[in-house]
Design brief:
Blueprint (H helix, E strand, L loop, with lengths): L2 E6 L3 H12 L6 E6 L2 H10 L2 E7 L12 E8 L11 E3 L4 H11 L17 E5 L8 H12 L5 E6 L5 H5 L7 H9 L5 H5 L3 E3 L2 E4 L5 H5 L3 H14 L4 E6 L7 H6 L2 E5 L4 H16 L9 E4 L13 H7 L1 H11 L7
Parallel strand pairs: 1-2, 1-3, 3-4, 4-5, 6-10, 6-11, 7-9, 7-10, 11-12
Antiparallel strand pairs: 8-9
Helix pairs in contact: 4-12, 4-13
Length: 335
């Protein structure tokens, strides 16, 4: 059962809009209820457990003394006010940014967040290639947006330097680095996950690690266990992993994948790299992974495309058509 988050603000339209937005986010383990008066908020809290209250900072603390709630997060009217009280988030930013910060503020013990029904897990699609500059990240974003039209999809960017911040025009306050830290500290929860998830074109995604060292120092088994934990939560139907050249073994991560899309190029050096990687899978006892690999020759984007419109042009250009046709034929023979 989802917990209840209340929203009370002097501007009732803000509370209504935020509640409507948050309730569309299925991965957030809250039902969000907007309140138009303190009296209604008090009455509700006496009848039902109110887990979290998001309240405007113009509301006097004395007004909240009769409200039964486990935790309160303030909505700051100005950036200066944010230093006065903790926890607090800045009110006048995008709703998804507010929601991420609220999730980061929310204090919860890991055992309070149960996993979904036993045995339920996400489908995991890996996109990996030993060939550089093969269009892998653009393909992942395009494929993810198309999948997200019909399913709950999370893209996890495991690239060392993906350039997503430039391509989406977004400055990331949280990233995979934060989730890795939480996981290593034993603090991973669905709340922590929600605090790092961003959205682009309907696709939820975790931005890449801020420092490449965060990935280089992470053992393949650790990243695989973190990915398996997210899959086991059952929040998303599909996990899409944009896998970079991980320094300490990516085979455990590839073992999780139901299918591995491998973009290729047709020059002799690229062909040699693909052959060497396939030979390595044989040598390390993971020849069975070759059955999950589908080699893909991706369409090349135009050289004159600008970063600001790159992802949109991919989605509605040849790359989008390629990804749609690929999905129609998913389950066909691997190369």
């Amino acid at each position: 059962m989802k917990r209840i988050m209340g929203v009370y603000d002097a501007d009732p339209f803000y509370a209504d809009r935020f509640a409507e937005f948050a309730n569309q986010k299925e991965q957030i383990p809250f039902t969000v209820v907007a309140f138009t008066s303190i009296a209604k908020l008090e009455a509700f809290s006496r009848q039902q457990q109110l887990e979290l209250l998001l309240v405007g900072d113009e509301v006097d603390k004395a007004q909240l003394t009769q409200v039964k709630v486990k935790q309160t997060v303030r909505l700051a009217e100005s950036k200066e006010a944010m230093a006065e009280e903790n926890p607090v988030v800045y009110k006048y930013q995008a709703s998804d940014a507010v929601l991420r910060e609220v999730m980061a503020c929310y204090k919860v013990q890991p055992e309070q967040i149960p996993l979904m029904a036993a045995g339920k897990k996400s489908m995991v699609i890996g996109v990996y290639s030993p060939v550089s500059r093969c269009g892998k990240t653009g393909f992942c974003m395009t494929l993810g947006q198309i999948l997200a039209k019909e399913s709950q999809v999370l893209l996890i960017s495991m690239e060392e330097h993906s350039g997503l911040s430039r391509l989406t025009g977004t400055e990331y306050a949280t990233s995979l680095s934060d989730l890795i830290y939480d996981y290593r500290q034993g603090d991973y929860t669905r709340m922590r996950l929600g605090a790092v998830v961003h959205n682009w074109g309907g696709l939820d995604y975790i931005p890449p690690a801020v420092y490449a060292e965060d990935l280089a120092e992470l053992r393949g088994e650790e990243l695989a266990r973190l990915t398996a934990q997210i899959a086991a939560d059952g929040i998303y139907q599909v996990l899409l992993a944009d896998i970079g050249h991980l320094g300490r073994g990516l085979e455990p991560l590839l073992e999780l994948c139901d299918v591995i899309y491998t973009p290729i190029k047709e020059d002799c050096v690229s062909a040699a790299k693909i052959s060497a990687w396939q030979d390595y899978l044989e040598l390390c006892g993971r020849a069975h992974l070759r059955e999950r690999v589908q080699l893909l020759k991706l369409p090349r984007p135009g050289a004159a495309w600008q970063a600001e419109t790159y992802l949109e042009q991919l989605l509605w250009g040849e790359m989008g058509d390629f990804a749609r046709n690929l999905l129609k034929g998913r389950g066909g023979n691997s190369k």
